[in-house]
Design goal:
Chain lengths: 321, 317
């Protein structure tokens, strides 16, 4: 499918539109907050503690008089960096393991498959706690834990996809023409499993946002001088008996971001599935549309038999915040 | 069946072995070493060396691992580096809070997720179905700590109904009081996990509604909801059981965070404290206990699922 057509399919869906819209807002906030925030998020002022929301302080202030809006705004930077880094690490780990588990010699392939089955049971948060015990808490711990913890999940999902592609005639033909494993992977396998990987990438980012919030809440994530939604939750939690309203903002920010990533994943899955796409369009316009002609040569996938990552699969297993 | 059970048991034991190696190795990656960490920056090199010998850290890493793993088999988790007390005693003590919390959370999760999931499938396309579906999608994205804080705000601060903090010091000697202090934390976990279960139940029930047997029953005069409950539910439950392992793993991990929020003296809170103190033998023991729990529940659920599914049973004969 051409890129433009795919983006149109994505934005056509309410889930996709919400996901793209909210995440764009978060990324823009992250960029802007590097240079400017309404007020200094770390500026304390005992005389303006616990101000109620007003024009000057849209979300009010906390126990030491910090402006909650500025803090939540500045924390978007932390979220974006952690989510992107975790997503990239998880994808590299996942696709690497999946390739090892499907394209190599039989004994390597099968031992990697067993390893994936064993590792997939380990909850990400426990990996993070083990790392935090050894190295102390940090955002790097979050990234590594999610990268490894979720990477295994990606490996499990994409391994079967890779094996499906590896059995096709065009891969056989390519191999017969003397193409090596690396080239097959790059030229034929990766383009074909890309939609599945993008869905998983977005789910792994959702996982990392929750994991960062959870670990920062426990005190093993973001350090004190870094704005983080989880840290703010933990700061405000001490006063929840007196000021229960203040915890709404950071929690809402986390929830909407995780929701946007989950919905984006759903929308990418649907938009990249030709069967669902034509069904949606024929329902809207009352006619079937011919599939768009492919332009990418021999590696174009045959229509997928099943939607990757079947609907209703619970997202973000074993992670929590 | 026997073949399956043996294979699954091997995977469980293999999982435990891999877990023990990974946990041990991760904690030994510590920059500097354990003795240095205990002695702190003020310890003289002689003190550190003495401590190292006392803790057996001067032995090869493989010997240390085998020593620890051998202890695991005998349910001996070693002694705390800080207090010197046996780790296993405290772990068992804390499980008396964590296990009931997890069980109660699961009950809440199932009570929320399954009936509402079936309802939302039956009401597909109608306003109530859309609200349930959207609500579940939203709730599944809520961080469990925040859910806990909101529930504290509603039930404990505003309505003054349930305790928000702590657990009776005398444990379960007054079961009513102990249970009361677990209700809110368990409800928190149950709601978030229940939302995920709801979504899963919903898609399983939607699948069942499309099946011929439901259509036939409806053609014979049954209402669609009755047909689903009578004929479709066994299939729906089977798919729910198949993901329950993941759910329970998520639930136990949630407990780590939720125990912290509600200051419950459970295994999760103990882990958080010991990570802060860098009490490595305790952290090792706690991580191993939690991992064993997750793997064991996964094993039990897989076996139950296999037992329940007549199609898989058929294949065994």
């Amino acid at each position: 499918m051409r890129r433009g057509a795919f983006v149109r399919e994505l934005l056509r869906r309410p889930q996709g539109a919400f996901g793209v819209g909210w995440l764009t807002l978060i990324v823009l906030s992250a960029l802007i907050s590097r240079f400017w925030t309404p007020l200094d998020p770390f500026d304390t002022d005992p005389y303006s503690a616990w101000l109620t929301p007003s024009f000057g302080h849209p979300f009010g202030t906390d126990s030491v008089g910090r402006d909650i809006f500025s803090y939540v705004f500045a924390a978007t930077g932390t979220t974006v960096v952690v989510a992107v880094a975790s997503g990239v690490v998880a994808t590299v780990v996942g696709v690497g393991l999946a390739a090892l588990g499907s394209l190599t010699a039989r004994w390597v392939r099968e031992s990697v498959a067993v390893l994936i089955d064993v590792l997939v049971a380990f909850p990400t948060l426990l990996i993070a706690m083990a790392l935090a015990a050894a190295f102390g808490g940090s955002l790097t711990v979050v990234v590594v834990a999610v990268g490894v913890g979720y990477g295994v999940t990606i490996a499990r999902v994409s391994r079967s996809e890779i094996r499906q592609v590896a059995r096709t005639d065009y891969v056989l033909a390519a191999r017969a023409n003397g193409l090596g494993t690396g080239a097959v992977l790059r030229r034929h396998v990766l383009p074909n499993i890309a939609p599945v990987v993008v869905v998983q990438l977005s789910l792994s980012m959702a996982t990392s946002v929750l994991a960062e919030a959870g670990l920062s809440f426990l005190g093993y994530g973001a350090p004190a001088d870094t704005a983080s939604w989880g840290r703010l939750l933990s700061d405000l939690q001490k006063f929840i008996g007196v000021h229960p309203g203040s915890v709404v903002w950071p929690g809402l920010a986390i929830t909407l971001t995780v929701l946007a990533l989950n919905l984006l994943g759903d929308a990418v899955r649907d938009a990249s599935d030709p069967r669902l796409r034509s069904r949606l369009r024929s329902r809207r316009t009352g006619r079937d549309t011919p599939g768009s002609p492919s332009t990418s040569g021999p590696s174009t996938a045959p229509p997928r038999a099943t939607a990757p990552g079947a609907a209703g699969t619970p997202t973000t297993p074993g992670v929590v915040s | 069946m026997t073949r399956f059970v043996v294979g699954r048991l091997l995977l469980f034991v293999g999982g435990l072995a891999v877990a023990s190696v990974l946990i041990f190795a991760t904690l030994r990656l510590l920059p500097g070493d354990v003795a240095q960490a205990i002695a702190g920056t003020t310890g003289s090199p002689e003190q550190v060396a003495a401590l190292r010998q006392q803790l057996g850290l001067d032995r090869p890493v493989v010997v240390q691992y085998l020593d620890w793993a051998g202890g695991l088999v005998r349910l001996d988790l070693g002694e705390s580096l800080v207090t010197g007390t046996p780790v296993i005693d405290e772990v068992l003590d804390k499980l008396a809070v964590t296990l009931p919390l997890a069980a109660l959370s699961l009950v809440f999760g199932l009570l929320i997720g399954i009936p509402l999931g079936v309802t939302s499938a039956l009401r597909r396309g109608r306003a109530s179905g859309v609200v349930l579906g959207t609500g579940a999608q939203l709730l599944a994205a809520v961080p469990v700590v925040w859910a806990g804080m909101l529930l504290i705000g509603v039930f404990a601060v505003t309505l003054r109904l349930l305790p928000t903090q702590g657990f009776p010091a005398d444990g379960w000697s007054e079961p009513g009081r102990a249970l009361r202090s677990l209700v809110l934390p368990a409800l928190t976990i149950g709601i978030v996990e229940g939302a995920v279960l709801l979504r899963f139940t919903r898609s399983a029930a939607l699948g069942a509604l499309d099946q011929d047997y439901v259509r036939t029953a409806a053609a014979n005069g049954m209402t669609r909801s009755r047909a689903l409950v009578k004929h479709g539910l066994p299939n729906v439950m089977l798919s729910v059981v198949s993901i329950l392992g993941l759910q329970v793993a998520g639930l136990i991990v949630s407990a780590v965070v939720i125990e912290q929020l509600f200051t419950l003296p459970g295994l999760g809170r103990m882990l958080v404290t010991d990570v802060g103190r860098r009490d490595l033998t305790k952290v090792q023991g706690e991580l191993m206990t939690l991992t064993t729990l997750v793997l064991f529940i996964g094993l039990v659920i897989d076996l139950v699922h296999r037992r329940l599914d007549p199609r898989l049973r058929e294949g065994d004969r």
